[in-house]
Amino acid sequence: MGDFYQNGIITTLHNLANRPLPDLEAELQRFSRERPMGLILPSLYSELEGEALPAILEELKPASYLSEIVIGLDRADESQFRNALTFFGRLPQRHRVLWNEGPRLQALDKLLQEQDLAPRELGKGRNVWYCMGYTLASNRTESVALHDCDILTYERSMLARLIYPVAHPRFNYEFCKGYYARVADGKINGRVSRLLVTPLLRALKKVLGEMEYLDYMDSFRYPLAGEFSFRRDVLNDILIPSDWGLEIGVLSEMYRNYANNRLCQADIADVYDHKHQDLSEDDDQGGLSRMSIDISKALFRKLATRGVTFNTETFRSLKATYYRIALDFVETYHNDAVMNGLSLDVHGEEKAVELFAENVMKAGEAFLDRPMERPFIPSWSRVISAVPDILEQLHDAVEADHEEYGK
């Protein structure tokens, strides 16, 4: 059970009473008449064959307050897309699957590439971006939630608590970030958030001095959570990274575009577990190693847009400061685990900190070496300005795929 403490500068909506799910969903059903709701699911085809996604669909079936579910499907050939249409066909809600490798969406992507408006790399960010575009094109929802498809402990209450703040007609929130304790199977998980993001934010405060942006980012209890919800108008102007900096990028964009009192975070689960990434100590192009570099670069870029000047000496100081703070956190988490009867591998934690410290420097060097790098996917408002009928083309392509391959 959560407490009622408000930390930082973002409103925290706690789970104080374990409110029964039927009560929440009955309210959401009433809200849906005034503010229709949708869900975005960015998915790899391989997740259809895994343990998590089939169970997620079973949980979603009774969520009748959803007007539409938009699924982004990556890494699927034609036969796999046909299978996906059958797989998601069990959903009673209106749903559409975006076949991102299909000829129609590939042609659309090529059109945008010719105008330098398409996402530049494959990944979750690109998938989410096209799903956001289809949500705008469909124009069926006013409040939209997004969550991953690899959640092993998924319960429908997560979705209800996630979308409630932006669906309530008398709340003024434009955005809600989900949070939870990353505890499962007797262990504390969430290494990148615990051992990279939080200590890096604290180190940035020491090196650069206090600034509201850093206080804002440090207010989120789980900044790397892949679960968030938003009002439809957010989708027009948001700039998101196409790499592992997606979650940091989204939080930063909400800070840039909206007042803090329009943003919140909500406790959506007591237990949360999903597919774990390898540390990838010997390969900084994969696993948590690549993730830590992308996340660090995302923070440095956002700080640069706020007028912060970086140089090699800054990053050296930052690495040293981060390393000391992160090692102190290892002891803190170890003691927390012991008191709760959980296990925590101190040696493994310190190895992760050592790798992340190296990658803070690598991220800094990459930031300095490639000053002209454009890390963000263009906003949909810019794309619409360049190609006025792009949403109609996207909508028609998805509908044509369903008509042709769904038979």
TrEMBL record:
What are the recorded GO MF terms, alphabetically? transferase activity
Q: What's the superkingdom here?
A: Bacteria
Keywords linked to the UniProt accession: Transferase
Name assigned to this protein: Glycosyl transferase
Question: According to the entry, what is the taxonomic lineage of the organism?
Answer: Bacteria, Pseudomonadati, Pseudomonadota, Gammaproteobacteria, Cellvibrionales
